[in-house]
Write a structure and sequence with these properties.
Elements (H helix, E strand, L loop, with lengths): L1 H7 L4 H9 L6 H11 L2 H8 L19 H14 L15 H18 L3 H7 L36 E5 L2 E4 L3 E3 L14 H4 L11 H4 L33 H21 L4 E4 L1 H16 L29 H13 L5 E4 L5 H13 L2
Antiparallel strand pairs: 1-2, 2-3, 4-5
Helix pairs in contact: 1-5, 6-7, 10-12
Length: 360
């Protein structure tokens, strides 16, 4: 036991990298050093073969298999390093709520020990969702910021913003004069950018209408009924749950190879088949249901957009299994896709989209 736990406390290169990134704004030398590291082919290749496309320090051991003091030593080592690598302290933190509670309790204790005002500390503590199911702040000076005399925390869940005023903003109980207002209100993740374009598929169906009850794709790459429309890092792919550079590169490479294969065979149309799309959507949902992600009102679930369906949108199965699946599909002649030729001309397709846009 002691040997296993001790080995977990050693920082790998990936652990050091993830931790130091949190401090890059203050340490220019570290920034330059890490930039050189990230540009090496060896580290880029290594990142592609990890669950999230990032050089985290992964741990196969389970939190509940160890006593509290042993868990705390592992959590402490990750906390000191900083960064989301903390959630890789044990393998079951995103799968088992009891295991997750041990990480959340550790973080709450750290916040309580750092933030001097107990009321402010309580507002900063993760309580209404399993820790890690939303983007987390693992300390690199962040929590100590709330001890500064010129910093005040206002919880807009208790006192919502009513209006932006000429001199600042007003909540339900107070007006705040401001020199500068920075908007950080979230975004319509994974679907918003595409849904806001008047994309029209077969039979005049709009993509926004097809996705009205939640996004449906095959591999996060294509949508049944929308031939030749590739959705890079779309819903149903690892996308925002992974290193976006890695996931974008994988999609671009796959799509480029796909187009080259079609051209070599004199084909010009590829379209996801409905049965393949249905099966993939079910698989994405099944994998997500085994995790704690579905318990949070997060933007992964579309919860930050009023009226948006609550569906877990990314694929949580990991970068490597996902890439293997995409490669298998391609190796089997693009299984699950219909490959044909003689599509309506691109000019006709563009005209249809333009017409739909004018009518909205």
């Amino acid at each position: 036991m002691g040997t296993e736990i001790a080995s977990l406390e050693k920082s790998s290169l990936g652990d050091v990298i993830v931790g130091r990134i949190n401090q890059l704004g203050a340490i220019s030398e570290t920034r330059e050093h890490l930039a050189r590291i990230f540009l090496t082919p060896e580290h880029r290749a290594a990142a592609r073969d990890t669950t999230a496309g990032i050089l985290y320090e992964y741990n196969d051991l389970k939190a509940l298999d160890h006593p509290e003091d042993a868990r705390s030593r592992v959590f402490e080592a990750r906390w000191e390093t900083g960064g989301v690598n903390f959630m890789r302290s044990f393998s079951d933190l995103m799968l088992d709520l009891d295991a997750n509670d041990t990480a959340a309790a550790f973080v709450r204790a750290k916040i309580a020990a750092t933030v001097r005002d107990p009321a402010v500390a309580a507002k900063l503590m993760p309580r209404d969702h399993p820790i890690g199911t939303k983007r987390i702040c693992i300390d690199s000076g962040y929590y100590d910021t709330f001890n500064r005399p010129n910093v005040r925390l206002v919880d807009i869940r208790d006192t919502p913003i009513e209006a932006i005023t000429p001199t600042g903003l007003r909540t339900t109980v107070e007006e705040f004069p401001l020199d500068c207002l920075i908007f950080a209100t979230g975004f319509d993740a994974m679907t918003g950018a595409l849904s806001r374009i008047a994309i029209t598929g077969r039979g005049g169906q709009r993509l926004a209408d097809k996705w009205a009850a939640g996004p449906r794709t095959y591999l996060g790459l294509m949508v049944a009924g929308f031939p030749n429309l590739f959705t890079i890092t779309g819903p149903g792919s690892p996308s925002t749950l992974a290193n976006m550079v890695v996931t974008i590169e994988q999609h671009v490479e796959w799509i480029a190879d796909c187009i080259a294969s079609l051209q070599s065979r004199g084909l010009d149309v590829i379209e996801a088949e409905t049965d393949a799309e249905d099966a993939w959507v079910q698989h994405v949902n099944d994998v997500a249901a085994r995790t704690l992600f579905v318990r949070a009102n997060s933007w992964y679930m579309g919860a930050n957009i009023p009226g948006k369906p609550r569906v877990f949108m990314p694929y949580v199965g990991g970068v490597v299994p996902y890439r293997q699946k995409c490669d298998q599909v391609a190796a089997k002649g693009y299984e699950g896709f219909s490959l044909t030729t003689h599509m309506a001309s691109p000019v006709d397709a563009i005209a249809s989209a333009d017409s739909a846009q004018r009518n909205t």
